[in-house]
Design goal:
Pathway: Purine metabolism; XMP biosynthesis via salvage pathway; XMP from xanthine: step 1/1. Helix content is 28%, strand content 34%. The protein is of the alpha/beta class and 193 residues long. It has a single domain, classed as Rossmann fold (3-Layer(aba) Sandwich), CATH 3.40.50. β7, α4 and β8 form a beta-alpha-beta unit. α2 packs across α3.
């Protein structure tokens, strides 16, 4: 998606060879018009697939998923929580994932009321690096008996293994920008096309 790649080139910051900061428009300050265009692109890619619900993980995926939901007939968005809370009542699906950016494991939890057997689910997230968060969401869907129709990613780090592994497992992964390499010395970002 050229619009997203242009924003990454213009406003992204290469912190290290594997850390890209895009908080000016994607995961701290949110550009809703960009999110809407991303949702439209995913709706085009996944056209013809039944999508009953969008599942993401807190916090950065929520805004993107909500904007995308408008392009899938305003389907509900469910987000996996990263911590147990007194507001999470009743039965839950839960698993543990490792965060590349936070460098630690954390639980991901969804109430059984909001993820059901037979539902067709689209997974949405802001970044895909090693695929740990996505595999956590996949685990939750499998526990619920939900059908994963596809995975929508804003920015994939193509030089890390997550996207290739998910595709090899048979998932339809639509990454709107795939970063092939980043140079922290020059700030140069190369994209895969």
């Amino acid at each position: 998606m050229q619009l997203l790649e242009d924003r990454i080139q213009r406003e992204g910051t290469v912190k290290t060879a594997d850390v890209l900061k895009v908080d000016a428009f994607l995961n701290h300050q949110c550009d809703v018009a960009l999110f809407d265009a991303m949702g439209e692109a995913w709706a085009e890619h996944f056209a013809g697939k039944r999508i009953d619900k969008i599942l993401t993980i807190e916090a950065s995926g929520i805004g993107i998923a909500c904007c995308a939901a408008r392009h899938f007939g305003n389907v509900p968005v469910v987000f996996a929580k990263k911590a147990q809370s007194i507001n999470l009542d009743g039965d839950q699906y839960s698993t543990t994932v490792y965060s590349f950016t936070k460098q630690r494991e954390f639980p991901v939890i969804v109430s059984k009321k909001y993820l059901n057997a037979g539902e067709h689910v689209l997974l949405i997230d802001d970044f895909l690096a090693n695929g740990k968060a996505l595999h956590g969401l996949i685990d939750l869907c499998e526990a619920a008996g939900a059908v994963i129709e596809g995975i929508g990613i804003a920015v994939e780090k193509g030089f890390q293994k997550g996207g290739d592994e998910l595709r090899a497992e048979g998932y339809d992964v639509d990454s709107l920008a795939i970063v092939e390499s980043m140079d922290p010395q020059t700030g140069r970002i190369e994209f895969r096309h």
